[in-house]
Amino acid sequence: MDDSLTAVNDSTVAGLGRLARFFGFSEVMGRLYGTLLMVPEPLSLDDLADTLRISKGSVSMNMRALERWGMATEVWVRGERKKYYSAESDLWQVIRNVLDSRERREVQLALQVLSESVAKLQSANEKLTPEDQELAKYYLERIDDLQAFFQFAQMALETVLGSQESIDFEAVTKIEIG
Question: How far apart are CA 46 and CA 91, in angstroms?
Answer without folding.
Answer: 25
